Amino acid sequence: MGILIQDLRYAVRMLAKAPGFTAVSLLTxxxxxxxxxxxxxxxxxxxxxxxxxxxxxxxxLFSDDPSQGAYSGNVMTGLWYEFTYHxxxxxxxxxxxxxxxxxxxxxxxxxxxxxxxxxxxxxxxFARGKVVSxxxxxxxxxxxxxxxxxxxxxDRPGAPEVAVMSYAYWHxxxxxxxxxxxxxxxxxxxxxxxxxxxxxxxxxxxxNTEDFWFPLIAHPLVSGHEPVFEDTTYxxxxxxxxxxxxVTLRQAQVAVNVDLRQLLLVEAGPKPSxxxxxxxxxxxxxxxxxALGISYLRSKYSQPLHVLLAAVGLVLLIACANVANLLLSxxxxxxxxxxxxxxxxxxxxxxxxxxxxxxxxxxxxxxxLGILGAWWGAKxxxxxxxxxxxxxxxxxxSLVLGFALLISLAxxxxxxxxxAIRASRHDLASSMTRSTNLAGSSFRQFASANCLVVLQxxxxxxxxxxxxxxxxxxxxxxxxxLGFHEDHLLIAYVEPETAGYxxxxxxxxxxxxxxxxxxxxxxxxxxxxxxxxxxxxxxxTSISIQGPSAPHSQKSGVPSEDMGAHMVDVGARYFETxxxxxxxxxxxxxxxxxxxxxxxxxxxxxxxxxxAGASPIGQQYCQGSPFQxxxxxxxxxxxxxxxxxxxxxxxxxxxFNALGKLRRGxxxxxxxxxxxxxxxxxxSNVIATVAPLLxxxxxxxxxxxxxxxxxxxxxxxxxxxxxxxxALTLACIGLYGAMAYRVSRRTxxxxxxxxxxxxxxxVLLLVMKECxxxxxxxxxxxxxxxxxxxxxxxxxxxxxxxxxPLTITxxxxxxxxxxxxxxxxxxRRAIRVDPMVALRSE
Length: 842
Prior knowledge:
Blueprint: H1 2-17, H2 19-48, E1 59-61, E2 71-72, H3 85-94, E3 98-104, E4 109-115, E5 125-132, H4 136-140, E6 144-147, E7 162-165, H5 167-174, E8 184-187, E9 190-198, E10 212-215, H6 219-223, E11 234-235, E12 238-243, H7 249-268, H8 274-282, E13 288-289, H9 296-333, H10 335-343, H11 348-386, H12 398-423, H13 428-433, H14 447-478, E14 489-494, H15 503-518, E15 523-529, E16 540-546, E17 564-570, H16 574-578, E18 582-585, H17 590-594, E19 599-603, H18 604-611, E20 620-623, E21 633-639, E22 654-658, E23 666-672, H19 680-690, E24 700-701, H20 702-708, H21 711-745, H22 747-755, H23 760-789, H24 805-830, H25 835-840
Parallel strand pairs: 5-10, 7-9, 17-22, 19-21
Antiparallel strand pairs: 1-12, 1-13, 2-11, 3-12, 4-5, 4-8, 6-9, 7-10, 8-9, 14-23, 14-24, 15-23, 16-17, 16-20, 18-21, 19-22, 20-21
Helix pairs in contact: 1-11, 2-9, 2-11, 2-12, 3-7, 9-12, 9-14, 9-21, 11-12, 14-21, 14-23, 14-24, 15-19, 21-24, 23-24
């Protein structure tokens, strides 16, 4: 320890004697280490953070699909990702691998809350609620803060209505008042007793902040839907189990799929159809580790974050190469010092240790600066990635700090080892007798520096090409034809039933709202729909088609295996309002809505897939099978395809049904003649006037919703561009430093050349030729490396090859030009060398 302290003191003195070198090195390392720490902090929060429950490693998910909603239709084939209530009961009662299995619905509902003693005409408070099985908290291992949590007894028919409140909502709304336990609140018009408050850190199995949890039996009251417990075709639940001691996930996987086949055989009856037998053979459940829970953000950003972490890791390598180059240059000026130390008896090992102490101290100081910068930068980047509603936050925990410490030490050893070993190999006699300016002109003399410069350019190229590919992907997405006109559209979401309106009152309210909004100057039309374009909500189901032009397997009403479509409920003049062209037939008319006609419009994809060129007008389709005429919709039109659900994926068959039974909430879509933001306040006032009990409704431009779909691509393109620019800057700084060092070491040689008659252009060409060789070598190594590495991001690109020649060529040319500029500055200094000054300095 005494020797170590002595080495540290000496290292501090040596770094203080070279403030320029120290400052540049610290800044370079702080950028590299800080960038890595910032991205790793986000990776930790989004991808690595376990659920705040007891022994999360024992949990297993029956599907970690982050999508929300339900599937309604025939027996699910292939991979099962949702389950009926009957399925849940079967697995819960027949499993042999789990201590217990709980169920929960992925959907979150907006609930209306009012104290029982409040004025019935007063505006209600709104919160988020979720339905879970009675054993949900016991399976997860969550403890209450006050009161108790749900139990299986709360989830039985006839049980008193109870709810569990989240700690965040309890703290925000009731200021941690423990008297809330046992109090009765009116929730969606029904009395619920608050059983207790969950633990402060618990937010649910999904990365969403919940306010209330209700037992599954309360689903009709919470959702406003009819009971679905006996419906064996309504798949609406996810499941999670806690493994028994000694049971592995793979063993449970086998047992669960055996149970699934038993379930399907029981449901099939004594004589299952051939189609059912085929579905039985392909049906399976893929268990997933449940420690991390379910996160849409994790599935969305998993690959981009890994790519960014790799990119910023390459930036750190460039930074290390830069500092190593600086240390090599600095070692030259310390040749006499090192020689004297060797002469007085210092061993080479002792010398290497001293120099490594300096480099590790330098990297540790750079790491400390990087952590301070990363703490601020990570929070800013995290908001860009996760938004403000994500329940997990950035924190400098032991894992993040350990990562920063590890890469700081690794960086210090990485960039310090080679210069230290080389410095310790100085020839003692020549170092003591020769002048430091008598360096030869051989290209091999600068081999170490040359290799580091080539390495920086080779590493910078794939980072820059990746940034270019992400930027071009974003441009392709922004220029994609969506199939509708979002520039003059406003949307507003209203929930009359949640606000206390009866279904009969809501049916009268919607026409009043549309009439009031349509009367606003500048409004061209207004309509209602259940799902707005690119709103992130989907409703897919199996269908049956019947009619003269129906597919052959459909004429009997028996669907083929791939008969399915997305469903959207829309109001009158919907396609006129949204701007989707009608190619055949007509739009849904006000009379269709008023007379409750069961008519619908299908998109081009559905017409092409299921009618094979024949006219679908007059044909009928219905949800599920067999075909039921009383539930069928008559096709009255064919609309152009539109990017309704996803910009990247293929447009699915979609049917737009005339809005019949109103749901608890619908979207109002408004088309304006001019800028929609000029009338959004007036539209909000109309809604508040016509429906005073509705909560404050925000009326926002649809283009905001559309632009939000590009959030991930904007974030990835912005971050990759930032790291690409940083990589380019560091590589060029490294090239500049190497060329400047080369020129300074060859001052006498250049002076002699000039004295013997060399022209300035010749000297400039000599230096630039060596610069060009370094750049060419870097590109020669970097291009194959780029072609191999960009395949990793192929799934993140849109209408672009990962080996796009235009992007690679443009980036290579830009890198070469910037590198040439970086090399020109020291080359220009070389042609200004005065031969007399250069020779006199010897």
